[in-house]
Every structure is written in structure tokens, then in C-alpha cells.
Amino acid sequence: MDIAVAGAGYVGLVTAACLAEKGHKVACVDVDAGKVALLQSGKSPIYEPGLEELLKKNRERLLFTTDGAAAYRWADVIIIAVGTPEEPDGSVNLRYVREAAKQIAEAAEKDCVVAVKSTVPVGTGDQVERWIEENRKNPVHIEVVANPEFLSQGTAVKDMLYASRIVLGVESPQAEKVMKEVYDPFALPYVVTDRKSAEMVKYAANVFLALKISYINEIANVCEMVGANIEDVTAGMGMDPRIGSQFLRAGIGYGGSCFPKDTKALHWLAAGCDYELKTVQAAMEVNEKQKVKLIEKARTYVNHFCGLEVAVLGLTFKPGTDDIREAPSLANIAVLLEEGANVRVWDPAGMENAKRVFQKEVVYCSTIAEAITNADICFIFTEWQEIRQFDIRQYAALMKTPLVLDGRNCYSLDSAREAGIIYESVGRERVCPAEVRRRLLENVDVRNG
Ligand code: UDX
């Protein structure tokens, strides 16, 4: 089939590459001429495992262009995958979706299907249909379909090629038939429903995962108080197929471009119907508190952070990405800087993005060892392999006082005990050798003046 993809962002690019891989001819449209030029030269503007290989392999079936009108005129199916940024009140800004719809309507010279893949509030499909009708130039029939995606950063190509399901929200059998021509080569199960239900699937699924994380984080907090171990608890829970073991990792909360935005958007959507989504509200509140939980724990050892040397390991919202949007590290570093700590950070991928948020206020280190050398406290915010594999005894050897606060449970409690460090993690017993604690208090007293 001839398919146009509006938006060469993260979702659009992965979608275009995977559709080409399955034999379709794809024209990927973006307004950013620099990005299009980069893609034309065979390079990917984002890092996503397997993406560049797919782009290269399917070069002949893939075209990148800024000429939306030409692409939309040519295509049988147009997939809208433009950004839907969040407004300060939690609502979704549909400006780019509207622009794409208008351009499609003006360009179309034959019947076609428009599939909305961007995450959009329920009812947006109807709105897109109206925008198209208002701007349509030719007597053609343009069907609007909802087709949400479930891509995770770092595994997006795999998530699309081997998705658990293809969700299609269609309003006619004809649109269903066309969309199945697009996706049949993937040989995946379909969920076919009406447009609004399909739009709802995306929010309901993502927000459910966010709820699951906030729930397990609260259970972890209680585990700490009653002396239980969250890892054993989740192992016991996760084997129940009704619960499942995924998204049960306790930590310092979720970040990224989706969960924080989608929870707010769903809450906002329900509020618009005079309905308060209390579970979602609670999940958001729990997440905000959880993000700075380690700071509170650190305060049980130090009165304030002023003048302390603080190492921060991990900046991104999860491993395998350079994305720091809504990452728990940001809220924590902000508190540390505000209180006058000297912050030294290390991250294998997120430092360039972090430099746009914290310019000269923090020191960027090229190794873990460099970041922790002579530090009074070390925080771990992302579970990078490099951190998990870092010899835990090095904290005792290199830090001034080895107080390690680990928000992602990177080390076993036994290894922490053997290493002779103070080790605070999430949902597990604290490891606190009396001698190290005494040394820490003396040192901090001196430094805090
Ligand atoms: C998510 C959804 O998984 C995906 O389906 C959707 O399309 C976009 O949003 P992504 O934001 O890339 O994907 O990351 P994900 O792997 O889901 O992690 C989100 C956040 O939750 C991260 O900050 C991660 O650290 C946290 N998380 C995840 C936990 O704290 N515990 C877990 O068990 C799982």
C-alpha cells in the first residue's frame, strides 16, 4: 500500500520504518527540514535500537519529505503521528493534529483513510473528521480511524513489529478492511472497535500501568515500615497470572513523556464530564511524593545539604534512553541545588539533555568513579546496567562517607552489608553499619558548620 506518515518524531519514524519493513511504500512527512535532510542521508535523529538498520534496509520503500501536500495526495492511508503536547492545566494541545488534518483535507484527490496514532483525548477522531470536512477541497471520501500505539522507548521497533495487539477504532467496514491491509503483514491479533473506545484503550492501558507502579511503590513504603521485603513480595504477587510480574518494580516513581502526561490527560478528560477519577488522582499524588522520597531518607542522616558533595548516578527516566523528561532525577537535583549542595552527575546517555536544564550548576562526570570520589552522599535514580555492574565495594573505597541512596534497587542487601556502606533502597531493610554512621555524622557536622 501507499502510506503517508505525518510527523517524523519518535512514533512516526518507528511506524514508518516498520511499515516499510512489511513491504509498504511509505512517505514520512515532517515540517522540520533539518530533520528530513538528516533522514534522507540515512541517519536517524533519535536513538532507538534497530531503527537505523530498518531505515537503511528499507531505503527504497521509504521517502522523507517536507512536502505534505504531495505525500497526502499520493497515499491510500495517512497516519497522523504528530506531537500532542501537554497544556499547563493537563489538557492536550491538538494544534499539530489540526494542522495535519487541514493539510490532508486540502491535498486529498482520492478516497483515503486517515488513521490517528498520536495519543489524543477521546472524541478527537470526531473532531478530526469535522476539521477534514471543513477544509476538504475535492469530492472525495476521507474516513477517520483511531489507531493507538503502545511503543516504549528503547524497545519501540520490537514493540511495533511484535505488538501484543493492533487496536483499530473504525466507523465503517470499509475503513476496517483498508486498515487490515496495512496491518495484516504483521500477523498480530486485532481489537476492532468504534473510534472512541479505541481512543480510550490507549489512556486506560497507560494509566493502568501508572496505577500499578504507584500501587507497588506504596506497598514498598509499607514494607519498609513493617520490615518486609518488596522484592520477595512482588515475586509472590507476580506469579499470579491475574496480576502479572511486569510493572511491579518498586522505585522512585515513573517519569517519561507518557505516563505523567496521560494520567493528567485522563483525569482532565473525566473532570470535563464532572467525574473525579480518584484512583488516578491518587496515583499522581503518590508518584510526586515518591520521586523525592530519597531526599527525605537522606534527611534522616543530614540536617541539610548545604556544602555537601553529592553524587548523582542516573539522570534519564529509565535506562536505554537519553530522555530526561519528567525524570525523578530532575526534581531531586533541583532540591539539592536549592539547598546549596555541590552536585556531581553521571549518566551514560542523558547528560547532553541534562545540560539544557542544569548548565553550570552541576559537574558532569565521565565515569561513576569520578562522580562518587570524595562524595558525602550518593543518589541512584536510574537502574543503568553500568551502575548495577559497578563494584559496590567501590563506594566504600572512594566516597568520603559511603551513604548510598538507591531509588532503583540496583544492589542486593547482602552485597551492601559486605561492602560496609550505608545503603538505603526502596521497600527493603536499611543497611546501616554503626561505625559508618558515626563517621558520617562527624563529617556532616563539620561540613554543615
Ligand atoms: C510507556 C508505555 O509503556 C508505552 O506502552 C506507551 O506507549 C508510552 O509510555 P515509556 O514511557 O517509554 O512507555 O516507558 P516505560 O518503560 O513504560 O516506563 C515508564 C516509567 O515507569 C519509567 O520511569 C520507569 O522507570 C517506570 N517504571 C516502569 C517503574 O517505576 N516500575 C516498573 O515496574 C516499570
From TrEMBL:
Substrate binds at K202, F247, L248, R249, A250, G251, G255, K318. It comes from the Bacteria. SMART domains: UDPG_MGDP_dh_C. NAD(+) binds at D30, K35, T84, T119, K261, R325. GO terms for molecular function: NAD binding; UDP-glucose 6-dehydrogenase activity. The active site is at C258 (nucleophile). One of its GO terms (biological process) is polysaccharide biosynthetic process. Keywords: NAD, Oxidoreductase. SUPFAM superfamilies: 6-phosphogluconate dehydrogenase C-terminal domain-like (SSF48179), NAD(P)-binding Rossmann-fold domains (SSF51735), UDP-glucose/GDP-mannose dehydrogenase C-terminal domain (SSF52413). Belongs to the UDP-glucose/GDP-mannose dehydrogenase family. This is UDP-glucose 6-dehydrogenase.
